[in-house]
Amino acid sequence: MFAYPEGMLIISRQHRNELMEDAQRWSLLQEAKRGRRARRAARSPDTDSRPVSHGAGTLAACGPRAAEPAR
User: What's the pTM?
Assistant: First the structure.
């Protein structure tokens, strides 16, 4: 199929190098994710990693209104 074995050797080395680079990139991404999760867990006082909601998202009621002058 190929005219010379050196060409196959070059192609196989390039392919192996590409696979190794992809594996290293994947490993670095996984390590970064673990680090972010660990920092988030250390920051958060509770064990849940989701953001904490303090209420229903509505505005707080204002204090009692002063009596307005009669018109």
Answer: 0.45
